[in-house]
Specification:
The complex is a heterodimer of chains A (148) and B (641).
Chain A (H helix, E strand, L loop, with lengths): L2 H30 L1 E5 L1 H7 L7 E7 L5 E2 L4 E7 L4 E7 L11 E8 L5 E8 L8 H9 L10
Parallel strand pairs in A: 1-2, 5-7
Antiparallel strand pairs in A: 2-4, 2-6, 3-4, 4-5, 6-7
Chain B lengths: L1 H25 L6 H30 L6 H6 L6 H6 L5 H22 L4 H25 L23 H30 L4 H30 L10 H26 L3 H23 L13 H25 L14 H33 L3 E3 L1 H18 L2 H4 L7 H25 L5 H26 L5 H26 L1 E7 L4 E4 L2 E12 L4 E11 L2 E6 L2 E5 L4 E5 L1 E4 L3 E10 L5 E9 L1 H34 L4
Antiparallel strand pairs in B: 2-11, 3-4, 4-5, 5-6, 5-7, 7-8, 9-10, 10-11
The chains are: A alpha+beta (148), B alpha+beta (641).
Chain lengths: 148, 641
């Protein structure tokens, strides 16, 4: 093996090792920073532990929105099969409405209420978050061709 | 009538793109002079007819021609004229037409500028032609903007009020100039592989720079829009769509640096080609992510699997074809000159390794949820902490090394001399770090470190600037590096300040009541009704006091758009240039009481100011290249005296 070839070999080995190390790091980091998406029915079935952060999505149940104390808002998210109560302290998105799709990020507290740190509604009248559409399809509340 | 003109123009543009692709690729052969002329002519024709189609759609929007479906679904007679015009690209069909228009602009520029050899230009036009064919077919078959509505509706459905905003008017065209500008770089790279022309980086440089400037400006504008329009007070959310723009930016930045080395010494020849291919591939992937509706975002206009599939096929053909060409031709490339460990090439190598690593982490974090969904059906999202975890160390390393690049010579540099020159920068970093740690609260080691780093980069840029000016060696290219690097430092200060020292308050206030955010008292004086051009608003009056003095009057609004049946909030921001006081109006709680959210964001304006400086640096570089070219043209036309 000429010195030049040997240098190239070392270089290739170093490169592969670095890439593998990097990939391993990334995968570990991904695992620790992943947020699962659950529909209310999933939450009921999977017995998600309190304090574990996840995203929940579904429709805001009609007549479930109550205000207070302070800037807090309470509402319920439903997919037709199960309903999860949600508490959120903050400014709700402009398109937050009863009966409309919503995605919230947060964790369950000890009493089974979902404490949201972020609430996302759809961005315009014609658009529904794909996860919500999927959750509604699974619970049979979605009709094909329905305009969201 | 307008619709038919548009439709016909698109068909003619497609025919010309076919001619351009064929003639251009044939023109890559040495003896095919005639084909090269045809390719150039077809390029201009392609541009003219694309512009005509775009003009027709714009005319439809301005005159509220609701017989065109795109117009009916996205416009309204009561909309202000500016938003009728920007509404052209505020929807899927129109934005894809804008994409092609920008492609046509760059194609015409390639044909007119004729940088590099004739064969290189022809081959580049051929590749642009292939891209144009793919996108025109995509438009004509899956997203035709000129589909007719019969009977036509009396009134249009309006434009999403979130998009009725001056920032949003220029943000999409800017991003497209960036995305599509990378297609020109890609075309030159593929042309270089086809013709074996090693000098392609010089020809492609202005296009690279133009794309990078536009991406920088587009991302900066998008971040600024998210900051003031979405009302969350944040400037970056690691949203997949933001990532879709960030990935090409990171790779294009790496490309700008590595192409510099290739141009000067022939180093990294194969790598630069690969980066050019990767940068445009990421643009395509970005388009796929944004346009296919696989992601939840304000940018997904519609969920249409057919469109997503079409773009996916296009991505595979483009990336696969380019990589195949690369694998076939790259081994024949000449190797560049060797360089010492202490040289500008080494600095650029580090720059490239770090930037590509950053792009790779964003890529994995953005696409992992899609893969997992496809493989297991599990729905997940990757949060900000993942990205922050990788970006922090990568950018720390990058910023430590940035000042060395411009101070090291090509092939062989003097590390000691560079360090000696940069010593005042080290001093500035030290002072900034200590000062921040000692004088600010809450006391934060991370903030002190970030400020030291920012000061290091900014001071080093200043040192480089003065040294070069004194040595009369300050050309526009060097100025570009000075500005771009300093801008990066300024943005870092802004990001750090806002992240570490932000204060926020959220309260329900009745008129006359006050809330406290850090050292600022906000008094709510009640609300009033306001009539806008196409909306009705509730406007709150909020006075801000500091140490008993009134410092600002803020008027956040909640606007209702009856045509669109939507409500959006309009935040009020009072900026001193060094910090932002940011107020958003929340829900009506009855009895005159409203939810009010306020933030004090120290140094927030620096984030976008730094972005603007970076873009300015790019402009300096671009101007330097174009001026050189003009000077040469002038010299060759004016006879020597």
């Amino acid at each position: 093996m000429t010195p030049k070839k040997r240098r190239r070999l070392y270089f290739a080995v170093a490169l592969v090792t670095a890439a593998a190390g990097g990939a391993a790091l990334v995968v570990t980091a991904l695992r620790d920073n992943v947020l699962y998406f659950y529909s209310p029915a999933d939450v009921a079935q999977k017995h998600v532990a309190p304090g574990v952060a996840f995203r929940i999505g579904g429709l805001v149940e009609k007549h479930s929105v109550t205000h207070g104390p302070g800037a807090a808002v309470h509402f319920a998210v439903t997919d037709g099969r199960a309903t999860v109560p949600v508490e959120f302290t903050g400014v709700l998105p402009d398109l937050f409405r009863e009966g409309q799709g919503v995605v919230a990020l947060g964790a369950l507290d000890g009493s089974g209420e979902f404490v949201a740190s972020e609430v996302l509604a759809k961005h315009d009248e014609r658009y529904m978050p794909p996860e919500v559409v999927d959750a509604l399809k699974r619970s049979g509340r979605w009709k094909e061709g329905q305009s969201p | 009538m307008t619709g038919e003109i548009g439709q016909l123009s698109l068909a003619l543009a497609l025919a010309l793109a076919l001619v351009m692709a064929a003639a251009g690729l044939i023109g890559a052969r040495a003896d095919a002079v005639r084909a090269r002329e045809i390719a150039g002519g077809a390029a201009m024709g392609f541009f003219v007819f694309t512009a005509l189609a775009f003009g027709a759609l714009m005319f439809g929007f301005v005159t509220s021609d609701f017989s065109i479906q795109t117009v009916a679904q996205n416009s309204h007679t009561l909309k202000p004229l500016i938003y009728k015009i920007t509404g052209v690209w505020g929807n899927h069909e129109g934005s894809m037409l804008l994409w092609i228009l920008v492609l046509a602009l760059y194609t015409a520029a390639i044909a007119l500028a004729r940088r590099g050899s004739e064969r290189l230009t022809a081959a580049a036009l051929g590749v642009q032609g292939l891209l144009a064919i793919a996108f025109l077919l995509f438009i004509l078959f899956t997203s035709n903007p000129f589909v007719r509505l019969d009977p036509q509706p009396f009134e249009g459905a309006g434009l999403n009020p979130l998009l009725q905003d001056p920032g949003l008017a220029i943000h999409p065209p800017m991003l497209y100039f960036g995305y599509v500008g990378l297609s020109a770089t890609f075309a030159y790279a593929a042309a270089a592989l086809i013709t074996g022309d090693a000098d392609w980086t010089r020809a492609a440089r202005p296009f690279m720079l133009a794309a990078w400037i536009a991406l920088t400006a587009g991302i900066t504008l998008g971040s600024w829009w998210a900051y003031y329009d979405l009302g969350w007070g944040g400037f970056w959310f690691w949203d997949p769509v933001e990532n879709a723009a960030l990935m090409p930016w990171l790779v294009a930045t790496a490309l700008l640096h590595s192409a510099l080395a290739t141009e000067r010494t022939g180093a990294f020849r194969a790598w630069t080609l690969l980066l050019a291919i990767a940068a445009f591939s990421l643009s395509l992937i970005g388009t796929f992510l944004v346009r296919s509706g696989v992601l939840t975002s304000v940018h997904s206009f519609a969920n249409d699997p057919e469109r997503g599939f079409f773009i996916l096929v296009m991505i595979f053909v483009a990336i696969g074809g380019a990589l195949g060409l690369f694998a076939w031709r790259a081994p024949k490339l000449e190797r560049g000159a060797a360089f010492e460990p202490a040289s500008r090439e080494t600095a650029l190598l580090f720059n490239n390794v770090l930037l590509t690593a950053a792009a790779a982490t964003v890529f994995l974090g953005t696409l992992y949820p899609l893969f997992l969904d496809a493989a297991t059906g599990e729905k997940i999202s990757v949060g900000g902490p993942y990205f922050a975890m990788f970006f922090a160390p990568i950018f720390v390393a990058l910023l430590i090394l940035v000042p060395f690049g411009p101070r090291l010579g090509w092939r062989r540099g003097e590390l000691k001399a560079a360090l000696r020159t940069l010593t005042p920068g080290l001093g500035a970093a030290f002072v900034a770090g200590i000062a921040v740690f000692a004088l600010t609260s809450p006391r934060s080691l991370a903030a002190a470190g970030a400020f030291a780093l920012g000061a290091w980069v900014i001071a080093a840029s200043a040192i480089d600037f003065t040294k070069r000016r004194r040595a009369r060696a300050l050309n526009l290219g060097a100025l570009a590096a000075v500005l771009a690097h300093a801008g990066l430092g300024i943005t870092l200060l802004g990001v750090t300040g806002t992240t570490v020292w932000r204060s926020e308050g959220l309260e329900v206030l009745a008129p006359g009541q006050s809330m406290q955010v850090s050292d600022t008292t906000l008094r709510f004086d009640g609300v009033e009704s306001v009539q806008g051009p196409n909306y009705q608003a509730v406007r709150a009056q909020i006075e801000a006091f500091r140490n008993g003095h009134r410092v600002a009057m803020l008027a956040p609004e909640k606007r209702a758009y009856p045509a669109e049946g939507q409500e959006i909030s309009d935040t009020a921001i009072h900026t001193t240039g060094f910090s932002d006081l940011y107020v958003a109006l929340g829900d009506d709680r009855g009895g005159g009481r409203w939810v009010i959210r306020a933030y004090l964001n120290p140094l927030a304006p620096f984030i976008w100011f730094g972005g603007a400086i970076m873009a300015l640096g790019g402009l300096a570089g671009l101007w330097g290249r174009l001026r050189r070219r003009f000077a040469r043209t002038a010299a060759s036309t004016v006879p020597a005296e």
